């Protein structure tokens, strides 16, 4: 950029402005390499455009603003414009360019590298000394409302019908019409609508075998809804607009509808890995991915601190094979290898078992005394009234049975070493470090918009999560650098 006469105004920005520090300490040029394969510099695109758009995304997350608001604010904010490297009188890109860059350029595969690059910058600057990572998960509410099964089906059908007619008006007469439900149909309304959605999806595929873009997207959603066994039990897809969002549990009594972010971070509070899943997913299953992302970023890991959800047999074995010390309290349900019957899942936040139909156990009991050793079991009880009406009861619930239970045998001695370690002072002292990750989760939510999804779908939620962790890492990087400079 050639500085214009108006660039003199930038002298008004205080020397200690946070954006000046960020600009001095953080290298944003890595973004050019990341988006090169998905970016066209021809046809008049300025060579520095990727960095300018990425810096705009950075400001957007830092100040928690929408696509439109960040452009409006930057237009009149000297510090923002200076940070972008443009002249005060220069125009800014259209907000739609920002979302295209985020979804098509970054989302096309480079987004994971965004986090890795900031972690590597921290390592190069000597800011990461600890060989410990702490893992945890947090949740984000979906951008859309929860719907009842009939609304999901009707909405998905209307959206598919509308998009096909908009692009191919001549096909309107060939598509099956939305059934008008009469009063006497109400009981079977969901089944009628399910049949209609399946029929509509098949007709579209037949009429438009090479469909693409928004039609393909709506066909994919229709198929997922039709094939979702939990839909009618009100436990599966709950939004035709955001079918990836799921119902999850924060505790025994509190639930949410949305997504989960699983994160790993160092003791210096630098986030090294992020995985985004639907709200109902199991935290422990993300362990390997978080560990591998952390190792790939160049962090040496000698110790993992996490809660009981990560004490699964596979996770403990993985740590043992890599000579990593688990500072993870054991939970008999998790560390005995999880649940054996397919479709049943244990939720450690709520401490209940969820069955394939999405119902959760209503109470639990321990069977057998401590003296009986390996014959002790944890028994979870389900509501038989729900089982009687369950569409998946075949092979699960015998008609006339007085109870429906799920038992987990408590086997202690396989983990004797870990049980002994759990009693040690070292364990007690190290596990006290775990809450610092909860503060990090709170920062992501309170200041950077992770309480609620800004966009719909797992793909966009993932981009939001990674950009947000990039920003909080940059904030932390500045603090750690200043601390290091003042100590030397
Ligand atoms: S029969 Fe009962 S436990 Fe089995 S899937 Fe249905 S509701 Fe769940």
UniProtKB/TrEMBL annotation:
Output the Pfam families linked to this UniProt entry: DDE_Tnp_1_6, DUF772
Q: Where is the Transposase DDE domain?
A: 354-478
Query: Mind telling me which InterPro entries this protein's record contains?
Result: IS1182_transpos, Tnp_DDE_dom, Transposase_InsH_N
Transmembrane intervals: none
Q: Where is the Transposase InsH N-terminal domain?
A: 8-103
Q: Which PANTHER family match?
A: TRANSPOSASE, TRANSPOSASE DDE DOMAIN-CONTAINING PROTEIN
Q: What is this protein called?
A: Transposase
Species: Brevibacillus panacihumi W25
């Amino acid at each position: 950029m050639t500085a214009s006469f108006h660039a003199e105004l930038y002298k008004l920005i205080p020397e200690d402005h946070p954006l000046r520090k960020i600009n001095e300490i953080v290298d944003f040029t890595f973004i050019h390499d990341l988006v090169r394969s998905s970016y066209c510099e021809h046809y008049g695109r300025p060579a520095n455009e990727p960095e300018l758009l990425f810096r705009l995304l950075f400001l957007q997350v830092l100040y928690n603003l929408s696509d439109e608001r960040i452009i409006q604010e930057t237009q009149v904010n000297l510090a923002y414009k200076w940070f972008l490297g443009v002249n005060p009188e220069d125009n800014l890109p259209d907000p739609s360019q920002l979302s295209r860059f985020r979804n098509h350029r970054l989302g096309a595969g480079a987004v994971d590298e965004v986090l890795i690059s900031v972690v590597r910058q921290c390592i190069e600057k000597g800011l990461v000394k600890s060989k410990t990572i702490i893992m945890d998960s947090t949740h984000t509410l979906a951008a859309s409302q929860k719907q009842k099964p009939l609304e999901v089906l009707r909405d998905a059908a209307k959206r598919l019908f509308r998009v096909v007619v908009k692009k191919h008006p001549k096909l309107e007469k060939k598509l099956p019409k939305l059934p008008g439900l009469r009063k006497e149909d109400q009981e079977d309304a969901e089944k009628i609508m399910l049949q209609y959605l399946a029929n509509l999806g098949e007709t579209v595929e037949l009429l438009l075998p090479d469909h693409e873009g928004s039609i393909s997207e709506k066909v994919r959603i229709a198929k997922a809804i039709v094939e979702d066994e939990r839909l009618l039990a009100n436990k599966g897809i709950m939004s035709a607009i955001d079918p990836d969002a799921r119902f999850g549990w924060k505790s025994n009594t509190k639930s949410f509808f949305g997504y989960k972010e699983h994160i790993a971070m160092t003791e210096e509070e630098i986030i090294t890995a992020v995985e985004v899943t639907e709200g109902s997913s199991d935290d422990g299953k993300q362990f390997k991915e978080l560990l591998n992302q952390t190792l790939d970023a160049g962090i040496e890991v000698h110790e993992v601190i996490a809660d009981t959800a990560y004490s699964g047999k596979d996770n403990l074995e993985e740590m043992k094979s890599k000579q990593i010390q688990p500072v993870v309290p054991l939970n008999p349900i998790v560390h005995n290898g999880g649940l054996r019957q397919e479709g049943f899942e244990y939720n450690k936040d709520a401490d209940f078992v969820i069955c394939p139909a999405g119902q959760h156990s209503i109470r639990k009991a321990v069977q057998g005394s401590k003296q009986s050793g390996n014959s002790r079991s944890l028994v979870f009880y389900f509501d038989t009234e729900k089982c009687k009406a369950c569409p998946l009861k075949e092979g699960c619930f015998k008609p006339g049975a007085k109870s429906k239970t799920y038992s987990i045998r408590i086997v202690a001695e396989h983990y004797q070493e870990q049980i002994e370690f759990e009693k040690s002072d070292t364990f007690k002292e190290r596990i006290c470090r775990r809450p610092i990750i909860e503060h990090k989760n709170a920062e992501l939510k309170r200041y950077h918009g992770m309480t609620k999804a800004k966009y719909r779908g797992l793909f966009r939620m993932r981009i939001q999560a990674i950009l947000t962790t990039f920003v909080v890492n940059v904030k932390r990087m500045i603090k750690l650098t200043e601390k290091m400079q003042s100590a030397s």
